């Protein structure tokens, strides 16, 4: 791996405010492109606050900031500074990234002692992709007045969502035993008191399995559930679908606008969505739950439409995978309520890590594992189980890969525009190739969704009256 011998970058690229600070304090440094630096030697900085107090916390980038340890050591309930406030602060200094330089912002600072253990430390320079290289002696001088607290832990290189689905139930059971006082019953779902499926959801699932089912049967099921019928009609009447004339009935919505495949999966998604309460608490940087779900589903629908026929999945089921892609997050709140707030706050202060890494560190389980397990309990189609379970793996090529791959691509595309919660929005060419899509076509599908922002937000408001 590259280390301190990497080729220095252009010195002129360093912001003047950073250069002045380092030179004024006699700190020797070198400049390096981030792509050429060993990730294990990088430092990471985060700004936290509690009422009027602010603190710059610095720790190795290969670690997770353990918020419980930080709070316990400092006797303070720290939370991440809102992204907008951090951006405003950086803007005042003409910076784009947050440097781990305690003296720059004239703020209190704290560092984990592990930052001094590398032969060379690399920290953000304020310019994306450009790092400062600083030796241990200079680093000691930089952090001379910083409080030193062990508050970060190394993260495992194991990717929990790459494990076999068959091991998820055992992992969830282990987490429940470790984190709650619940007694494990004969069946795990009894322990967790998972709600039973509604009669509407059961009827829709039976209808999906019937190859002879038609519009009349589907309309009859939807109409027996007045709130669901109203939502289907509202969906069809939305400006997003631009239906000509007034939508007069559920059958009208199916035949003229949405189609059988979309409505049967939409009805299933809406029915399943009623079985768990969406948590009021969520990370500050994340898009509201249903808004994120609807954007993702809409983009998946558009991407699937552009795929070659031989690769194209069942479009309605793919749409449902998007609508329910974050269902495991609601299940985490349901199963681990005492720990859920810590999960949200930890996601806010560890933006350099994926949510699955953070959840696995804190709980021993991830939202993808929880969501897929619940779908198995409810006997939904296996395509949906795989879509939820492997959606964060751009290299997944197992069963029903197109469903998981579409969800992964849609979330990454949306994250590039600040929608959702994806940590790494880079998209490998291999993901496009497996779906039979080009980056240009995917961007066109994305733009159609972004152009329909107001219509999609209106759909989301139906879930948050």
Automatic annotation (TrEMBL):
Domain HDOD: 194-394
Pfam families named in the record: HDOD (PF08668)
SUPFAM superfamilies for this protein: HD-domain/PDEase-like (SSF109604), YbaK/ProRS associated domain (SSF55826)
Regions that span the bilayer: none
InterPro entries the UniProt entry points to: HDOD, RNase_Y/CdgJ, UCP036888_HDGYP-like, YbaK/aa-tRNA-synt-asso_dom_sf
PROSITE patterns: HDOD
An example molecular function term from Gene Ontology annotations: aminoacyl-tRNA deacylase activity
Protein name per Swiss-Prot or TrEMBL: HDOD domain-containing protein
Organism: Denitrificimonas caeni
């Amino acid at each position: 791996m590259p280390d301190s011998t990497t080729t220095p970058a252009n010195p002129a690229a360093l912001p003047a405010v950073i250069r002045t600070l380092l030179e004024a304090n006699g700190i020797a440094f070198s400049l390096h492109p981030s792509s050429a630096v060993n990730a294990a030697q990088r430092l990471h900085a985060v700004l936290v606050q509690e009422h009027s107090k602010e603190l710059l916390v610095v720790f190795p980038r290969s670690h997770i900031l353990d918020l419980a340890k930080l709070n316990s050591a400092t006797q303070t309930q720290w939370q991440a500074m809102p992204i907008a406030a951090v951006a405003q602060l950086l803007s005042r200094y003409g910076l784009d990234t947050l440097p781990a330089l305690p003296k720059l912002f004239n703020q209190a600072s704290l560092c984990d002692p592990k930052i001094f253990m590398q032969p060379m430390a690399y920290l953000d320079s304020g310019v994306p992709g450009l790092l400062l290289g600083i030796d241990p002696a200079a680093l000691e001088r930089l952090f001379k007045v910083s409080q030193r607290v062990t508050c970060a832990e190394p993260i495992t290189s194991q990717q929990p969502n790459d494990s076999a689905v068959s091991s998820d139930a055992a992992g969830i059971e282990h987490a429940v035993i470790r984190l709650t006082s619940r007694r494990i019953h004969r069946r795990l779902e009894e322990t967790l008191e998972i709600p039973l499926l509604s009669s509407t959801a059961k009827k829709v699932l039976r209808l999906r399995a019937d190859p002879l089912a038609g519009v009349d049967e589907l309309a009859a099921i939807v109409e027996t559930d007045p709130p669901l019928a109203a939502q289907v009609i509202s969906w069809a009447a939305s400006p997003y679908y631009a239906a000509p004339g007034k939508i007069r009935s559920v059958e009208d919505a199916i035949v003229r606008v949405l189609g059988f495949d979309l409505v049967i999966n939409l009805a299933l998604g809406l029915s399943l969505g009623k079985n768990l309460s969406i948590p009021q608490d969520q990370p500050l940087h994340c898009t509201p739950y249903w808004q994120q779900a609807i954007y993702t589903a809409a983009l998946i629908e558009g991407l699937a439409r552009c795929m070659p026929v031989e690769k194209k999945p069942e479009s309605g089921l793919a749409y449902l995978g998007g609508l329910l892609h974050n269902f495991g997050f609601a299940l985490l709140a349901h199963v681990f309520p005492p720990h859920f707030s810590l999960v949200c706050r930890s996601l806010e202060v560890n933006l350099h890590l994926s949510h699955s890494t953070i959840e696995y560190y804190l709980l021993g389980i991830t939202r993808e594992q929880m969501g897929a397990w619940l779908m198995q309990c409810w006997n939904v189609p296996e395509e949906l189980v795989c879509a939820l379970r492997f959606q964060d793996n751009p290299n997944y090529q197992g069963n029903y890969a197109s469903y998981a791959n579409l969800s992964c691509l849609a979330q990454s595309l949306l994250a590039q525009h600040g929608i959702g919660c994806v940590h790494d929005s880079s998209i490998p060419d291999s993901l496009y190739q497996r779906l039979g899509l080009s980056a240009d076509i995917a961007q066109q599908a994305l733009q159609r969704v972004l152009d329909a922002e107001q219509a999609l937000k209106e759909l989301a408001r139906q879930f948050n009256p």
